[in-house]
């Protein structure tokens, strides 16, 4: 039981920090929150890029949920001071963020990187704050696996 709590702590801390930053922030039209779903495929050992909008958000958090679990853990976040890659990321491959974007790149992709990636993005616009959630299901294929020639 203690192990599950320890694994959930990094995401909870990240979420609590985001909530503290957003406290007092009013989203004028909660119906205007965007929810975007996508799928991506990558070849083990290769690279894959996961998008999080077409412009750089003011704040973003990338989370990862592995197969057969409901635990979303932060892997990268940026609170306006540059991206911070978390330790969990080493079990997925080599993570980095494309400069001046919030797109997540996973190089040397591991089979264990398969799962759901979530980018929570907050945009500070002239019309007020906008919030978007990007849900990307990543499948990682092995060389020679059906469909791997098209990745």
What does this protein structure show overall?
The protein is mostly beta strands and 151 residues long. It has a single domain, classed as Immunoglobulin-like. It has one helix and nine strands; from the N terminus they run αβββββββββ. It is globular and about 50 Å long. The N and C termini lie far apart (39 Å). The relative contact order is 0.25. The N terminus is likely disordered.
Keywords:
single chain, mainly beta, Immunoglobulin-like, 3-stranded antiparallel beta sheet, 14% helix, globular, disordered N terminus
Short structural description:
Helix content is 14%, strand content 40%. The protein has one helix at 2-22; strands at residues 34-43, 48-50, 59-65, 73-78, 84-85, 94-97, 104-107, 115-125, 128-141.
Q: Uncertain segments of ≥5 residues (pLDDT<50)? A: 1-24
In the residues, how many domains can be counted? Answer: 1
Whole-number mean pLDDT: 81
Helix and strand string, N-terminal first?
HEEEEEEEEE
Which CATH first-tier class would you pick? Mainly Beta
Strand order in space, largest sheet: 1-9-8-3-4-5
Backbone CA Rg: 16 Å
Proportion of residues in extended strands: 35-45%
Strands, count:
9
Shape: globular
- How would you sum up the major sheet? 6 strands, mixed
Question: Into which percent range does the helicity of residues fall?
Answer: 10-25%
According to CATH, the fold-level topology is Immunoglobulin-like
CATH superfamily: Immunoglobulins
> Which class best fits the helix and strand makeup?
mainly beta
Name given to the CATH architecture = Sandwich
Termini separation: 39 Å
Total helical elements: 1
């Amino acid at each position: 039981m203690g192990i599950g709590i320890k694994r959930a702590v990094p995401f909870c801390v990240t979420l609590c920090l985001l909530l503290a930053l957003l406290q007092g922030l009013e989203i004028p039209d909660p119906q205007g929150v965007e929810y975007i779903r996508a799928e991506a495929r990558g070849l083990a050992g290769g690279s894959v890029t996961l998008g999080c909008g077409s412009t750089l958000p003011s704040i973003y958090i990338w989370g990862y949920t592995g197969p057969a679990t409901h635990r979303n853990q932060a892997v990268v976040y940026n609170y306006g001071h540059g991206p911070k890659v978390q330790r969990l990321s080493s079990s997925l491959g080599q993570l980095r963020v494309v400069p001046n974007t919030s797109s997540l790149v996973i190089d040397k992709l591991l089979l264990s990187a398969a799962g759901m990636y979530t980018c929570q993005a907050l945009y500070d616009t002239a019309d007020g704050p906008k919030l978007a959630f990007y849900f990307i299901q990543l499948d990682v294929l092995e060389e020679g696996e059906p469909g791997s020639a098209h990745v």
